Known about the structure:
Elements: H1 3-12, H2 14-26, H3 34-48, E1 54-60, E2 63-70, E3 73-82, E4 97-99, E5 102-104, H4 108-128, E6 133-140, H5 151-160, E7 163-166, E8 176-180, E9 182-191, H6 207-219, E10 229-237, E11 247-256, H7 259-270, E12 280-289, H8 296-311, E13 318-321, H9 327-332, E14 337-339, E15 345-346, E16 354-356, H10 360-373
The structure holds zinc ion.
Residues 82, 110-111, 143, 168 line the site of zinc ion (ZN).
Protein name: Carboxypeptidase G2
EC number: 3.4.17.11
Keywords: Carboxypeptidase, Hydrolase, Metal-binding, Protease
Amino acid sequence: MGAMESLRWMEARLPEILKDLEAFVRRESPSGDLEGLEAAARFLEEAFGPLEGRLSRKDTPAGPVLLLKREGEGAPVLLLCHYDTVHPKGSFPEPFRLEREKAIGPGVYDMKGGIIALLYALRYAEATGRRLPALEVLFTPDEEVGSPESRPLIEAAAKKARAVLVLEPPTPEGHLKVARKGVGLYRLRAIGKAAHQGVEPEKGVNAILELAHQVLKVAALEDREKGTTLGPNRIRGGTATNVVAEEAEVEIDLRAWTLEEVQRVEEGLKALKPVLPGARLVLSGGLNRPPMEPTEASLALFAKARAIGEALGLRLEPGRVGGGSDGNFTAALGVPTLDGLGLFGGDAHQKTEYVVVPEIPRRTALLAELLAAL
Ligand SMILES: [Zn+2]
């Protein structure tokens, strides 16, 4: 059995794969929508329940977390699947449609398509009696909001795993992901003193003015060459036009490839000193997702996938992307992590999100072969 056999098997099942993809995508499941998440979780139970292994469920305030455990040799390989999407219900004119070579729908690319790819990779292994390593598959409901409930479960499972595969989509060029930037969110508050702008403005300390000085210093902490960016992307302050602004705050999005850069920026933020006499600064927030930095072991994992891709006619490169995923958590624990094993497509988080239908069999076969090769 080789890559071409599994490709032919997948090609023969493309209509069936599309039917499952449609049924799953039609159960719209935006993060936080417990009804929608429940419906999607039930689809997963119906689809994965009959497979070899044991499927269990844990209800959390963010929605159900499902875990599929499949016996096999050695320490388990952990597969990360989130089934929430960023799209509020009804965002698309039609929750699933086919247009020429595209299948379009909320979450079809990020990442319900990847979950369907896994479903067929497992069905293929069972149909052919192929041996797989021990597997644990986590289906989580809150990745798009930072995985507040799932994170401890993901980390606990990762600590026992010998490798982690993330079924997020590949890069827009179709490459796998070996590096992701870390993501931090910080809030800088300036506190001044209110006073009547007309009667005695000299008694006030203007927090907006103070913050204006600080925002430029924050931006100066960027290092574009190293890929470190700081976005002061939300700002608010003041109460009325005739009152010297007593408070103002800015929210800052930090992205960086390395923990070293995160630390440099955090030190810079902590070292900010007020410019106006009488003003104070308060910094809060921190790192939400640590950077996913490539290691020798994760690159070895990638090399395996690349070799399989070659046999399938795919040219895979080690991709690096700015967005975070649950792979950031597992990579930070030192567990070799390979991301981007979902379906090929584009327009993530947009109302035109799609996967390329004729490419589905090759991506599904890639996953099936990679599982067998681990
Ligand atoms: Zn995703």
